[in-house]
Design a protein that fits this description.
Helix content: 40-55%
Number of strands: 7
Strand content: 5-15%
Low-confidence stretches: none
CATH architecture of the largest domain: 3-Layer(aba) Sandwich
CATH topology of the largest domain: SMI1/KNR4-like
Structural class: alpha+beta
CATH superfamily of the largest domain: SMI1/KNR4-like
Number of domains: 2
Shape: elongated
Largest sheet: 5 strands, antiparallel
Number of helices: 13
Length: 289
């Protein structure tokens, strides 16, 4: 293997010409590729998102890579993006022992541990199915202001991409049945003063009172100066002074968010309302109670 080829491979890597690396190495007979070339190929496959192919290749050179921290890091990288977090933790821990304090290894080790913990915490016992048959108050105002056609999977993905947050599964399922609106039960019991909501923003852009509408989540956060911790999901009677949001600070952008109230007039005080969106829905009571 020539030094010129190695220099070219590194240059392509720096210039993000990853497919050039794959093409050049795959032109060489597999029997003639050494550990270094296969390592370059595996890294390139990882960078192209071809994690299963990369993992298969790294397993072929496992004996040579046993004492190489980069081999363990790249194998851990495969497992991480295949959502095999326990395996990723194992490899990143070995890489850290072989090359202590490497910043990339420590970062991915921490990420893998968080993902593994979150994955285990989201394994829940089945809950009673929620009955939405008498949930919505379909007044003319509610239908005109809030309610849109049920969202397609493509629209949900588009809205999530625009918001940069993954919406809770219970919320998307709820919106597929009835996309936005005013519930019969609008009060949230709190220890001090109860909170009232006016309506739920649906998934879409056509209604102003929808997640990506003219008065949607991003608009409210930016115009009101609210903390960028998630997604505004509810209107309240004091809309200019407070919001109800999905809070992703502890879960990450693709995790299960808490539901919080943010009080603009009280220095943007954040009050937790529920551990998750489903618990928030189940906790709503009639304003007349």
């Amino acid at each position: 293997m020539s030094e010129n080829l190695l220099e070219q491979l590194e240059l392509w890597h720096e210039e993000d010409e990853i497919q050039e690396i794959v093409d050049a190495i795959e032109e060489i007979d597999p029997e003639e590729r050494d550990y270094v070339l296969n390592s370059h190929l595996g890294r390139a496959l990882n960078n192209l998102g071809r994690y299963e192919e990369a993992l298969e290749l790294f397993e072929e050179i496992a004996e040579e890579g046993e004492e190489d921290p980069l081999w363990h890091f790249r194998v851990g990288f495969c497992h991480y993006y295949l959502k095999q977090y326990d395996e990723a933790i194992r490899e990143f821990e070995i890489a850290d022992k072989l090359d202590p304090e490497d910043e990339d290894t420590l970062e991915f080790l921490a990420l893998s541990r968080r993902k593994a913990a979150k994955k285990k915490s989201t394994v829940k016992k089945p809950v009673q199915k929620f009955d939405f048959s008498n949930f919505w108050d379909d007044s003319e105002y509610a239908l005109d202001t809030y309610v849109s056609e049920p969202p397609s999977d493509e629209l949900i993905a588009s809205v999530e991409e625009e918001l940069v947050f993954k919406l809770p599964a219970f919320y998307t399922s709820m919106m597929k049945l009835h996309n936005g609106g005013i519930p019969h039960n609008t009060r949230i019991p709190l220890e001090q003063e109860d909170l009232e909501i006016s309506g739920f923003l649906g998934i879409g852009r056509d209604k102003s009172q929808s997640l990506c509408g003219a008065a949607g989540s991003r608009v409210r956060i930016e115009e009101g100066g609210y903390p960028e911790i998630g997604v505004v999901i509810c209107d309240t009677p004091a809309a200019e002074h407070e919001v109800v949001m999905l809070d992703y600070r502890s879960s990450g952008n693709d995790g299960e968010p808490e539901v919080v109230h943010v009080d603009k007039d009280n220095n943007y005080k954040i009050t937790k309302l529920a551990n998750n969106f489903e618990a928030f829905i189940r906790g709503l009571v009639s304003a007349e109670n």
